Amino acid sequence: MSKKPTVIDLFSGVGGFSLGAARAGFKVLAAVENDPIAIESHAKNFPKCKHLQRNIRTLPGTELLEEVNLKLGELTGLIGGPPCQGFSNIGRQYARDGRNQLFGHFFRLVDQTRPAFFLAENVPGILSPKYDSMRENALAKVPDMYRVLKPFKVTASEYGAATTRTRVFFFGYDPNRFNEGFTEDVFSPPKKAETITVQMALEGLPVEISDDWKAENAEWREITKTNGSRFMAKATGEIPFGVGDPVAKEKYLTSNLVSGCQGTIHLEAVKDRFGKIAGGKTDEISRAHRLDPNGYCPTLRAGTGSDRGSYQAIRPIHFSESRVITPREAARLQGFPDWFIFHPTKWHSFRQIGNSICPIIAEQILNPIRNKLSY
How many angstroms separate the Cα of 227 from the Cα of each of 147, 204, 315? Predict the structure, then answer.
């Protein structure tokens, strides 16, 4: 077994949960993701991790453990964010949405792997009364050996991120493998958390974005590294051992180059319209929200995959420029560091960012779990 506590990331996406786990001191043994584009990007950011492009519905716990050479009960943590679109308040909230069943499969794998703890993330809509039986059936799969806390909500801006993104966590643990127990207040926002506004989060990134920055090579641009806040320290550094694409890290560490600065072509009429919208207001035609430099970014949406129409999500408008934000700006607002890479297309990169848990949240929720482990 690894000397470091270990986790497996289910429904891993591009790796927001994995990054938070790595920064909290866990070794990410494996990532399971059905989307080939997302797991390809995860593999670039986590080259030492085992990658399984699998449908979790058909993945037995025995096989999952065999993939990482562990026996039943040897895994420290099972983490993941089952698809939330079926539960989202901005979606159609079909109780029979097939993706909702994946929530139950997360807990099936808890039973079949017996980790020291489990941590699942989803949208607040999952707590709606219409999903009571679904949640109860899913959690009924958890063995009696675990103590399960009540679901708790977390808002990213209260933990030092520049977004109001709010999510719900489901946490349970085996008390025999921890030095002490848990209560919900362990995961409360830090009393001295930084207040990071949109303008603070985007500091140092290119502001004037050319429409011509569309090709993969053109998206790499130089940034100015700044100091002073805990947020910026994480945005510009704190690279866990074995994490990060080697090429991207080299460009970043030696030349201050970051990816994801693709431009978006806007008609002159659209630019004029965007320029007249005040911060915090919404464009009546596109429904795009203009960012308030002194406020927070609303929840970034992911859009849909090719299986559901390939719809692009509405992107926020930059607070001082008459354009929508770039993927790199979205990444900063979501709490990703500059050395972390996404798919080179805007559509896929925005999907990956919008679908991901905020790494800042993941790290801060996993830190007390790591600290209470008995080994």
Answer: 41, 10, 28
Residues 101-138 have pLDDT tens digits of 899 999 999 999 999 999 999 999 999 999 999 999 99
pLDDT in tens, 176-194: 999 999 999 999 998 888 9
Residue that the structure tokens 């127990």 belong to: 181
Residues 251 and 109 in one domain: no
Q: Is residue 246 located within the same domain as residue 297?
A: yes
pLDDT tens-digit readout, 80-101: 999 855 554 444 445 454 556 8
Largest CA distance in the chain: 64
> Where residue 327 sits, what CATH number does that domain have?
3.90.120.10
Q: Of the segments 166-180, 261-275, 292-306, which one has the largest average pLDDT value? A: 166-180
Give the residue numbers spanning the domain of 156. 6-193+357-372
Region of 355 please: left (phi>0), alpha (psi -120 to 50) or beta. alpha
State if pTM tops 0.85.
Answer: yes
Any domain includes 269: yes
- When divided into structural domains, the chain yields a total of 2
Does residue 158 sit in the same domain as residue 237? Answer: no
Rounded Cα–Cα distance for residues 364 and 193 (Å): 11
Q: Which residues are catalytic?
A: 84
The residue type found at 116 is: A
On whether both 169 and 188 belong to a single domain, the answer is yes
